[in-house]
Structure to design on (205 residues):
């Protein structure tokens, strides 16, 4: 068994968000699977075209889920099928949420759903460097304190394990079956942060 001390240090650094991510969906009901799939496909294409016309690049539009299932109905009523297509939308325009949402509503109407939005930092590399440095400083300070308490001298580092977390600012909205939005809807981004935890093993000198 290695002698020494194992400690955990953490460092958290905040930054200003530079990307807005919105999760939109299109949801339709139909009496058969083929119709449900066809209708959700048409309306999804309309939403994507509207978003691209609004300035969203194709590389910032992606499908995150597609579902088709039988919708529960009371016994004795006609069977219906529900189709859903969920789209992840990214925008660098942090203040254009209302207009972007209106573009999607105009394209899909009451078929549009929205699962929420988040503000995030696209490139976290520099924040991670800073958080890692803070985490290591905290780990060393803990180890030095424990070494003094136990009457040992701190030696070299023999092992490090890292865990990363990031905390984007999230806003949740339920736009399901809504039929129009005020273009003046504004959302305000706050700080987003990343956190690094380091488990560090120091040998005794």
């Amino acid at each position: 068994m290695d002698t020494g001390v194992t400690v955990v240090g953490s460092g958290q650094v905040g930054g200003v968000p530079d990307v807005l991510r919105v999760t939109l969906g299109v949801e339709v009901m139909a009496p058969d699977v083929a119709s449900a799939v066809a209708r959700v496909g048409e309306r999804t294409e309309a939403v994507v075209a509207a978003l691209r016309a609004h300035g969203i690049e194709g590389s910032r539009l992606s499908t995150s889920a597609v579902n088709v299932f039988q919708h529960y109905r009371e016994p004795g009523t006609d069977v219906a099928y529900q189709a859903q297509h969920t789209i992840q939308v990214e925008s660098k325009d942090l203040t254009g949420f209302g207009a972007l949402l209106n573009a999607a509503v105009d394209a899909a109407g009451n078929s549009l759903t929205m699962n929420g939005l988040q503000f995030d930092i696209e490139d976290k590399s520099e924040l991670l460097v800073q958080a890692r440095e803070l985490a290591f400083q905290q780990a060393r300070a803990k180890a030095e304190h424990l070494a003094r308490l136990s009457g040992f001298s701190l030696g070299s580092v023999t092992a490090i394990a890292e865990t990363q977390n990031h905390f984007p600012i999230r806003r949740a909205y339920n736009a399901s079956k809504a039929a129009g939005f005020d273009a003046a809807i504004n959302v305000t981004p706050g700080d987003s942060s990343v956190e690094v935890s380091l488990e560090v093993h120091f040998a005794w000198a």
About this structure: DSSP finds three helices and eight strands in the chain.
